[in-house]
Automatic annotation (TrEMBL):
Family: Belongs to the thymidine/pyrimidine-nucleoside phosphorylase family.
Species per Swiss-Prot/TrEMBL record: Bacillus methanolicus PB1
EC number: 2.4.2.2
Protein name per its UniProtKB record: Pyrimidine-nucleoside phosphorylase
Function noted in UniProt: Catalyzes phosphorolysis of the pyrimidine nucleosides uridine, thymidine and 2'-deoxyuridine with the formation of the corresponding pyrimidine base and ribose-1-phosphate.
Keyword field contains Membrane: no
UniProt xrefs under PROSITE patterns: THYMID_PHOSPHORYLASE
Length: 434
């Protein structure tokens, strides 16, 4: 087989065979296929697309390019949740303990973040003592015992995807549905779950800005998952403004605690109950979505979700007393209020720009090597549709710098107020199960 022939084949709009796709991914991972040939192929895919069968083969080939996690020693049906990004997305921190508390095993492999705020592991590390550097055996034992554990991502998960994503990034081939869908799904499949629930974000702060594009990506991923034998479904949720109120690592941990107490922001609570119900149903712990939702609501009411969080944190070295006393989480030196300059209704909160403001405070990494400040970030006081009076706070800024004029300016530009009444955006756009 010669790579040049396969590039030509795809360039001319023909379908690659399973063997050809395996040859490409194996060759690219071991270095026998050079970057210049792989870039030509990805550009051909960008224009010609891939059939459903090709997408499934590409996903499996990438999933098999490195370590694959074996979760078979964990009892029950393992359901993994994946979100396609967004700003201030606290769902993982809430969902893990919540579904674990009704008996769904949560075996979460997670990473550190690049961008607005840290990843799930960074956020959890704002709990004093918490660590996710545990070995596989301990991970499996903890999930069997507590129904939940989080382990730091293995170094050699889907190396083909790592290399290919970096190449696509510099060859203008990121924006291709078959390539995005197989990239995301390869990682989920290598991470070992039986079922996958996707939270596909849509709107200004999302990777996919329009509902049409989000729907196409969601469908592509759901089909790949189901075609390779992992039951998969997707919820398309709004990211035209940040989810919940908190953006920042320790602030989001506190927000997750509040939500598990039943005192969280409405949108975050609703999205967690929606995603959680699907997870519980896929894990066969309930017979209907309605029953699943009732179980989760009860777990919040009777504090079993909160108990599950405490057990999870303390089993991984964390000080679980932060749950009852969140003031033990890292605190910023200063808090400032962003005061509204006029009366009106909040009409826009540009999610990625607000996320960037949190990053400028130190909540996120600008490069892989930079360190993050777990204490800092933003807490929104108003969301789209809320009425605001001149002088009222729009945002509380938690900072370790005294001079934050630049950040305030950025927030003023990206939180818009209008005299007209505004409706809040719809939170859940669609559920895709086919
Ligand atoms: N996220 C991924 O993991 N892969 C892509 O290709 C795009 C977004
Ligand atoms: Ca949030």
């Amino acid at each position: 087989m010669r790579m040049v022939d396969l590039i030509e084949k795809k360039r001319d709009g023909k379908e690659l065979t399973t063997e050809e796709i395996q040859f490409i991914i194996k060759g690219y991972t071991d270095g026998s296929i050079p970057d210049y040939q792989m870039s030509a192929l990805t550009m051909a895919v960008y224009f010609q697309g891939m059939t459903e069968r090709e997408r499934a083969d590409l996903t499996l080939a990438m999933a098999e390019s490195g370590d694959q996690i074996d979760l078979s020693k964990i009892e029950g049906i393992k359901v993994d949740k994946h979100s396609t990004g967004g700003v201030g997305d606290t769902t993982t921190l809430v969902l893990g303990p919540l579904v674990a508390s009704v008996g769904v095993p949560v075996a979460k492999m997670s990473g550190r973040g690049l961008g607005h705020t840290g990843g799930t592991i960074d956020k959890l590390e704002s709990v004093p003592g918490f660590h996710a550097e545990i070995d596989n055996q301990e991970f499996i034992d903890l999930v069997n015992k507590n129904k939940i554990a989080v382990i730091a991502q293995s170094g050699n998960l889907t190396p083909a995807d790592k290399k290919l994503y970096a190449l696509r990034d510099v060859t203008a081939t990121v924006d291709s549905i078959p390539l995005i869908a197989s990239s995301i799904m390869s990682k989920k499949i290598a991470a070992g779950a039986d079922c996958i629930v996707l939270d596909v974000k849509t709107g200004a702060g999302a990777f996919m800005k329009t509902l049409e594009d989000s729907r196409e990506l969601a469908r592509a991923m759901v089909r790949i998952g189901n075609n390779v034998g992992r039951k998969t479904m997707a919820v398309i949720s709004d990211m035209s403004q940040p989810l919940g109120l908190a953006i920042g690592n320790a602030l989001e941990v506190k927000e997750a605690i509040d939500t598990l107490k039943g005192e969280g922001p409405e949108d975050l609570t609703e999205l967690c109950l929606t995603l959680g119900s699907h997870i519980v149903l896929l894990a066969k712990k309930a017979n209907s979505l309605t029953e699943a939702r009732q179980m989760l609501e009860k777990a919040i009411e009777d504090c079993s979700a909160l108990e599950s969080l405490k057990r999870f944190l303390s089993s991984q070295g964390g000080d679980a007393s932060v749950v009852d006393d969140p003031s033990k989480l890292p605190q910023a030196k200063y808090t400032f209020e962003l005061e509204a300059k006029e009366d009106g209704f909040v009409s826009e909160i540009v999610a990625d720009e607000v996320g960037t403001a949190a990053m400028l405070l130190g909540a996120g990494r600008t490069t892989k090597e930079s360190s993050i400040d777990l204490a800092v970030g933003l807490v929104l006081r108003k969301k789209i549709g809320d009425h605001v009076k001149k002088g009222e706070s729009l945002v509380t800024i938690h900072s370790n710098f005294e001079n934050i004029n630049e950040i305030k300016e950025k927030l003023y530009v990206n939180i818009k107020i209008t005299p007209e009444i505004m409706n809040p955006p719809k939170l859940i756009h669609e559920v895709i199960t086919e």
